[in-house]
Design goal:
By secondary structure, the chain is an alpha+beta fold. Helices cover about 20% and strands about 20% of the residues. The longest helix is centred in the middle third of the chain and has 22 residues, at about 260-280.
């Protein structure tokens, strides 16, 4: 099919982004009422959400970057994976979990959000609904806010919220199921408390509709970000319904007692979408607006009876897992986009996209450079939207469970889709399972019971873990090493919007690596590495088994990954910068001073291994030296 828009974008489209909360792929009728899936349907009709599918494109392989709320919101607004930055101030939840009541802002002032990027291009921006990215609250005693809010001065404006991150206006409920249970306008709490949870959508929706009406009158492009609190718990659709509001043209929502509360909450989400779609159309903005509907993660089945429907189906197979999981049910989400005159009505794409890809898509749409300090993990899917022949989506994609299990996926040259989960179980609070240390090299002696690998092309329901079916074959080992290579490349390079070079097995890219150690490393000896290749090279060192070293490195402010294992990026670690090389390298020998910055510390290495690996971002071409105790 020829693209609908062959010429460059000449006008700046409005963007309306509605994101439901904890709503599964199978809760949307256009994802379930499909050929080959007779008898499998969403629990209720979703006619308004399905209007987007009818008038635009339906993505079947779209993913939230995380399987829980906060990190997905962070990724959407920044184009960066949330695990690259600490999620909370709680030591128990570093780089995992979600923010809680009165937690500080997660987005640093130095980061350019998509709202700030769009502001710089003349957009007016507004957010309505669930923020859940932290605020810098004023306290009565100068101490950090207490979880119960007893020392928070709600009368004072806070910082670090939506209006400090690129939104000209904000009205919403912050985190519906946490204190202060109050509506917030811009940077002020209106009163404490000022709502029950049933009030949230009835208050937010007409304001969002009025915003569209006002922006039509004012002229100029706008970005409307609308993260809903539904159908997240507490599942509280107003049983009395919501009356119409003729002042903004809002129709009534009617509660249907023939459905349960969760199903009525889905119906309410659909009502929200319909009211905003109607407003866009009535204001004559449909052809100038990119209208997006998605959800922040999979369904939370503690709050629905539709366990055999809500997670969703691919090729007739029920997705495994739920919210918080590294399994598909945790992060494969509906993504529907309508853009009249640009997106073919009723089209479908199975290309892999992530919700954090909106950032690069808008940069691409506007034809501007990516701002500095932004979008490291965002890949444009504009070609998929426009139906450009040959457009395929991501070949590599990465998701993360609530408790830190990485899920690395790849579409290989044959079109097969593979997924490697670094952890047992789903890695979330609903299904459990410990995360595995992704930096430990996968080899023949690896403990394969700690990780899982699936061929999603033949097994989209993730029922057959390839590592427990008759042992690990040579081909499966190679595939696991390849997927780990890409994951380590994403970690080491600080970005995932460029595809790392394929793993090196000798010859092209990296060859002739040798390693010797001179003297005792803990007494300041050197490690000598010789590398030959065409580059470009990104050189890193992985130390495995040196538990005391971890504390020493942390005391020096050097990067490290986890106790007992230290992953040092030589591009940034001060003690090791003498061996970092970039660009095309001839045969070259590096003499690495292992301990100069640790001199004077009364800490010795324990027995372990040092591995040197080099290549574009990272490779699986490891050389290992064993250091004795």
């Amino acid at each position: 099919m020829a693209p609908l828009m062959a010429a460059a974008q000449t006008t700046k489209p409005n963007v309306v982004y509605i994101m439901a909360d904890d709503m599964g792929l199978g809760d949307v009728r256009s994802y379930t009422n499909l050929a080959g899936q007779a008898g499998v349907n969403s629990p209720v009709d979703t006619p308004n959400i399905d209007r987007i599918a009818t008038g635009g494109i339906r993505f079947t392989n779209a993913h939230s970057p995380s399987a829980v709320c906060t990190p997905t919101r962070y990724g959407l607004l920044t184009g960066q994976y949330a695990w690259r930055t600490p999620l909370t101030t709680s030591a128990a939840h570093q780089k995992s979990g979600v923010l809680y009541a009165y937690d500080p802002p997660m987005i640093p002032p130095s980061r350019t959000t998509i709202a700030e990027m769009l502001q710089s291009q003349g957009y007016h921006t507004a957010a309505f609904g669930k923020w859940h990215l932290g605020n810098d609250w004023v306290t009565t005693d100068g101490q950090p806010p207490k979880e119960n809010g007893s020392n928070v001065d709600h009368s004072q404006p806070f910082q670090g919220g939506a209006v400090d991150n690129g939104f000209d206006y904000y009205f919403g409920d912050d985190i519906t199921n946490h204190l202060p249970h109050s509506f917030i306008e811009n940077d002020l709490v209106l009163s404490t408390p000022s709502y029950t949870q049933t009030d949230c959508l009835p208050e937010v929706v007409p304001r969002a509709m009025q915003y569209v009406i006002d922006r039509k009158a004012a002229g100029g492009p706008f970005f409307l970000y609308m993260p809903l609190n539904a159908p997240h718990h507490p599942v509280v659709p107003p049983t009395g319904g919501v009356p119409a509001d003729p002042s903004v043209g809002m129709g009534a929502y009617t509660y249907d007692p023939s459905y349960d509360s969760y199903e009525n909450f889905i119906r309410m989400v659909d009502w929200v979408v319909g009211e905003l779609l109607d407003t866009i159309e009535e204001q004559g903005l449909a052809g100038d607006t990119i209208f997006v509907f998605t959800t922040d993660n999979g369904v939370s089945t503690n709050y629905t009876d539709n366990d055999l429907i809500s997670p969703g189906f691919i090729q007739g197979q029920l997705l495994r897992g739920r919210k918080a999981d590294a399994y598909e049910g945790g992060h494969r989400v509906p993504l529907l986009v309508r853009w009249d005159g640009h997106v073919a009505p009723g089209s479908t794409s199975d290309g892999i996209v992530e919700l954090n890809d909106l950032y690069a898509t808008m940069v691409d749409t506007l034809g501007i450079p990516m701002p500095a300090n932004a979008g490291e993990d965002s890949v444009s899917y504009l070609d998929l939207l426009e139906g450009v022949p040959g457009a395929e989506g991501r070949k590599l994609s990465l998701q993360r469970s609530q408790w830190g299990s990485y899920a690395m996926r790849q579409v290989d040259g044959a079109g097969d889709e593979w997924k490697l989960i670094f952890g047992k179980g789903g890695g979330g609070w609903l299904t459990g399972g410990l995360a595995a240390d992704a930096t430990i090299p996968i080899d023949a002696g690896y403990d394969f019971s700690t990780i899982q690998m699936y061929n999603l092309t033949t097994d989209p329901g993730e029922q057959t873990n390839l590592f427990v079916q008759g042992g690990v074959s040579a081909a499966e080992l190679t595939k696991a090493q390849e997927l780990q290579h890409y994951l380590l490349g994403f970690i080491a390079s600080g970005q995932s919007n460029q595809v790392p070079a394929a793993p090196v097995t000798g010859g092209a890219g990296c060859s002739g690596i040798s390693l010797v150690t001179n003297g005792l490393p803990w007494l300041g000896g050197n490690m000598t590495v010789t590398a030959t290749g065409t580059g470009p090279f990104h050189t890193s060192i992985l130390m495995v088994g040196f538990a005391p070293l971890h504390a020493s490195l942390m005391s020096l402010g050097l990067p490290s990954e986890s106790p007992g294992n230290c992953f040092l990026d030589l591009a940034i670690a001060p003690a090791f910068t003498s061996i970092f090389g970039a660009g095309v390298l001839p045969t070259k020998t590096y003499s690495i001073p292992l301990m100069p910055s640790l001199a004077g510390l009364d800490v010795l290495f324990q027995a372990g291994t040092i591995q040197f690996f080099t290549g574009e971002y990272a490779t699986s071409d490891f050389v290992t030296a064993t250091i004795g105790a």
